[in-house]
Amino acid sequence: MDITLYEAIVSGHAHRVRLFLSLLDLPYQSVVMDMQKGAHKEPEYRKLSPLGQIPTLVDGDVVITDSTAALVYLAKKYGDEKWLPEDPVGAARIQRWLSTASGELFRGPVVARGVKLFGRDYHYDDATMWAGRLLKWMDEELSHRNWLAADHATIADVAMYSYLRVANEGDIDLAGYLAVLGWLERVEDLENFIPMTISK
Ligand SMILES: N[C@@H](CCC(=O)N[C@@H](CS)C(=O)NCC(=O)O)C(=O)O
Description:
By secondary structure, the protein is α+β, with helices and mostly antiparallel strands. It has helices spanning 12-23, 43-46, 67-78, 88-102, 104-118, 124-142, 155-165, 178-188, and strands spanning 3-7, 29-32, 56-59, 62-64. Helix 1 (12-23) links the parallel strand 1 (3-7) and strand 2. Helix 4 (88-102) packs parallel to helix 5 and helix 6 (124-142) crosses helix 8 (178-188).
């Protein structure tokens, strides 16, 4: 096994993959990219990631340039079916949350954090609207279940965790979402959990 993760400490996309590598207890080499200095846009890195995005997972000859794709790859290659069920309904439930992680989670909490933490020129009001819609839905879902997609932790929980844990860095307040807060704690209680670095 020869896994390398190109990552950045502030990146929740990278933390998803780092967290899952840890949950699977897989050894890997970390290459920390200095995004402030534009290391992810250098021609050499773009040979791996044509869009110049963090993270990239490299496993031998295999290169995966998307965080949720990396979760799928790691679950299928190294995990057991528990992390990514094979049956049609189970797999679809997972995909629903992977899509949400790249969709509503990005449009809401990720963009809000980008504005407040990194001064990005995004529409903050749109981001808070999306964050509110997402959190209301998640809180309803999690008020009658412990995990997002099954009766145990799956890659759906891993994909959704990191950016929600640091939502406050985008001034998104989770205080009213008690079921979401309880779920964050359940993820943190998983064996081999590693935290997302808090930046403010
Ligand atoms: N769909 C990608 C998105 C990754 C992403 O947006 N990463 C950010 C860092 S957190 C990035 O590289 N942004 C620079 C860019 O998109 O140009 C994934 O899930 O990995």
